Amino acid sequence: MLLMTLAERAATQIRTWLYDGTIGRDGFHSVPEMAERLGMSRSPVREGLLRLAEAGLVEFVPQRGFRRVRPTGQDIAEIFALRLALEPQAAARAARQGRDRDAVVQQLHRQLTRMREAATSGDEVAFGTADELLHAVILECSGSSRLVALIAELRDTTRLIGANTAGRSRSHLEVLEEHEPFVDAIADADPARAAISMRRHLIDTGRLLVAQAYDDGDTEAWRAWSDLVDEDE
């Protein structure tokens, strides 16, 4: 029982390191290294890593150790096909809010401010958190807690497998600027523009992530994207 408890603790901490970038997308790590960092013996750390491997977050390579899983074009295309089916309509619904819209817009601007502050200070974790909260505010306007939870899980999966454009394909400030059009459209009570702006943001983000997967060696990345995502809808 003690071994399992320590394994859970190891898996939780390593998952956090995957999430905040402490364990980067490049390079290999060893069980002894993680055991030393965690102050544990190797057995529970190995067990915790096996759980993360089963969840698709890390992979073991013989004679090299483990590394975080690099997302494939298929992974990214599947995630963004789902987000494109749900989030533009959520943005449109947010723009249709009646007297509650002012409160929604206030929350959105609060998250934009936090994103700007984080971008200025270089705090990637705070930036990502504010980004997620901004999208969550919009999704909550759908009135569906299941939708909010589903998109949160998809975004979490994207970050955990190391798919992130901020700081690699575009700056944090550029990511921030992509959010402003649909926030403005919601503030202006313009559902059509809100949906279009959200869709454009998601497609631009998805394409950059697919390009990263292709650059990382997934030669089928663009085929997966074209098969699953209709950019002209």
From TrEMBL:
The protein's name in its UniProt record: Transcriptional regulator
Gene3D superfamilies the record matches: GntR ligand-binding domain-like, Winged helix-like DNA-binding domain superfamily/Winged helix DNA-binding domain
Source organism: Flexivirga endophytica
Domain annotation HTH gntR-type: ranges: 4-71
Pfam families found in the cross-reference section: FCD (PF07729), GntR (PF00392)
GO molecular function term, any single one: DNA binding
InterPro entries per record: GntR_C, TF_FadR/GntR_C, Tscrpt_reg_HTH_GntR, WH-like_DNA-bd_sf, WH_DNA-bd_sf
Segments passing through the bilayer: none
Keywords, in A-Z order: DNA-binding, Transcription, Transcription regulation
